[in-house]
Amino acid sequence: MEITTEMIKQLRAATNAPMLDCRKALQEADGNFDKAVDWLREKGMATAAKRADRDASNGVVELYTHGGGRVGVMVEINCETDFVARNEQFRKLAHEIALQIAASAPKYIVAEEIPASEIEHESEIARVRAKEEGKPENILPKIVEGRIEKFKDEVCLLRQTYIRDESITIEKLILQNVAAIGENIIVRRFQRWELGESINN
Fold it and tell me: For an engineered disulfide with 66, which of 18, 102, 122, 195 has Cβ 3.0 to 4.6 Å away?
């Protein structure tokens, strides 16, 4: 199929990818727009993964309040250069991540931060629950493992489903932005406060 300039322009408008990459994606996808978008996203993810070890010490501290001041979030998002730190797309991403934290109340950024004692505690709860549900002894470890993975999906920011698009996680959202912006982006730290919660939470 012939790849026209118009097709390339449309793909570029939809993905922000460079013209040459758009042409290559359309060639690889035999002119199919959706497949070309997927090809670019996959390529972007691979490129984003390569950037993950680059130093990110610039960025922004995003502040967000919700519900007339009932919930407050402060999150530090880092990138590699001051230029990107001022970039509108980067700022929008920081805002989206602050919104996610306000709405979904994660406790950690990644699963590796969860203390072993908390995992053990959750495993025990899952084991007891499975037994009470009458599950056979031989499948208990599998059930516990599945529930622990679900627990990690709930409490870890990067594993959470993005509130605006349930087909992707926050990690994927960040990788898409890394691919589009061209710099490593990391969530350094965050804090979430809710009116009236105890200081120990």
Answer: 102
pLDDT tens, position by position, 41-98: 777 655 555 555 666 678 999 999 988 889 999 999 999 888 999 999 999 999 999 9
Contact 63, 98 (CB under 8 A): yes
Q: Can you name the residues that pair with 65 across neighbouring β-strands?
A: 72
DSSP 110: S
Domain-embedded: residue 199:
no
**What is the C-alpha separation between 61 and 63, in angstroms, rounded?**
7
Q: Are residue 100 and residue 186 in the same domain, yes or no?
A: yes
pTM of the complete model = 0.70
Domains: count for the chain? 3
Cα separation, 100 vs 59, in Å, equals 18
145 and 171, same structural domain? no
Q: pLDDT of 109-123, one tens digit each?
A: 999 999 999 999 999
CATH number (domain holding residue 16): 1.10.8.10
Q: Give the domain extent around 133.
A: 115-154
pLDDT digits (tens, 9 = 90+) for 80-95: 888 999 999 999 999 9
